[in-house]
Amino acid sequence: MTHADRIVAMLQQAGVRRLFGMPGGGSNADLIEAAGRAGLPFSLAHTETAAAFMATAQAEITGQPGVCIATLGPGAASVMNGVANAWLDRVPLLVLTDCLGDAAGQMQHQALPQSDMFRPIVKWSARLRPENAAEVMRRAIDEASTPPCGPVHLDIAGEVTSAAAPGGKDASAASHLPPTPSPQPPAPFFPAHRPVILLGLGARTP
Q1: Which helix (H) or strand (E) holds 196?
Q2: Phi, psi (5° rounding) for residue 33?
Q3: DSSP string spanning 70-107?
Q4: What pTM was estimated for this model as a whole?
């Protein structure tokens, strides 16, 4: 089992139903292959921004985190408009971007400070490494899904997704999402002839 398989398994346990993206190589390809092995569908988008909007729409409809993937550099820059939409609308979205490996030199093609780019419009940004992949994924899912919900960005290099993951499929993959509260019957409205109710984004969930 690779780290890509572990990541996909954790996403499925968190309720993710589909991946969206306009991928490049590296970790993108590993994640799509792992998703195929696990039966998690992948939808190819026309642009990275479209992928983020598609994942955001699915998250709003299902109440479960949405996931989009993008390649490094220009791909990561292109997805940001969709991520900003998730930030403003408080939608749980995981943005998985490819990045250069630790062994890459200083002057590399398409290298951008991706974590710095995303930080103002995400709840949390981090980089997965082989030694912390499960822990970082768990926190990313928790951060995205804990109210107020919002997008989370993860940089993942191909050297991580292609590496063998320790333990079995279920090891360290348990979701730590907060339990969904049981819906309560609505209280009767106070006596009024023309009541007015103002609902904000926080009122969309139980």
Answers
A1: none
A2: -65, -45
A3: E-STHHHHHTHHHHHHHHHHT--EEEEEEE--TT--SS
A4: 0.82
At residue 154, φ and ψ (nearest 5 deg) are -130, 125
Q: Is the pLDDT of residue 205 over 50?
A: yes
* CB atoms near residue 30 (< 10 Å): 25
Which helix (H) or strand (E) segment holds residue 117: the answer is helix 114-118
CB atoms within 10 A of CB 154: 26
Bond into 206 cis (ω within 30)? no
Please name the residues in contact with 45: beta carbons below 8 A apart, sequence gap of 6 or more: 20, 21, 22, 51, 54, 68
Residue type, 85: N
Distance CA 65, CA 55 (A): 8
Phi/psi of residue 48, nearest 5 degrees: -65, -40
| Cα(11)–Cα(82) distance, integer angstroms | 20
Look at residue 198 in the predicted model and tell me its pLDDT. 80
- Give the residue among 65, 73, 74, 72 at the shortest CA–CA distance from 150: 65
For residue 95, what are its two tokens? 């943005």
Choice between 201 and 158, residue whose per-residue pLDDT is larger: 158
